[in-house]
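This part of the workshop introduces the protein records we will be handling. Getting from the letters to the tokens is the skill we practise here. An example says more than a description, so a record of this kind follows:
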Amino acid sequence: DEEALETVYSEALTYYDIGTVTRKLLRPLLIELGQRWASGHGTIAEEHFFAFYMRNKLGARFHHRTRSVSGRKILMACLPGERHETGLLMLALILNEAGFNTVVLGADMPLEDAAEASGKIGCEAVVLSGVVEPGEEVLQKQLPRLVSSLDIQVFVGGPASVNFSDEIMRAGAVVLGADVDIGRKTLEAALS
């Protein structure tokens, strides 16, 4: 019911900032949709409908964000093979509100291209996001190669960062976790 969803989302943003809406409404809803799908009570169609809706809403908010942010520039992208952008966009908006200048490359980003882009635009950190298992090639070869090729910190967030934290840390990256507020605080502390 897109009309009802639109009403709830718009009403929530009338009363609360995007960080609160993300923590109290969007993130719990995404978790519930994932659990419904995993338990067989939900469908891929439900998840895709909501993901498409949220990508459009968050993308519009990102497009209209404050552009005069002069804070540290952060390159943000999904891990290779990762198509779930919602968490990445939520974190980008929260980081933007915290004063970071976020540059989002989106889904399924080859890590060698992320390294090149971060250098071209003068980023002070790279943030990668993952929901699904990144795969052995990414965790054991591509991510360590990315970390060693950069003079800036690499962070990995999302559910994949929780499930594969040991491998991510062995690669030399910093784990942000799946909570966007904790991720923001971890990033701020690491870059201070």
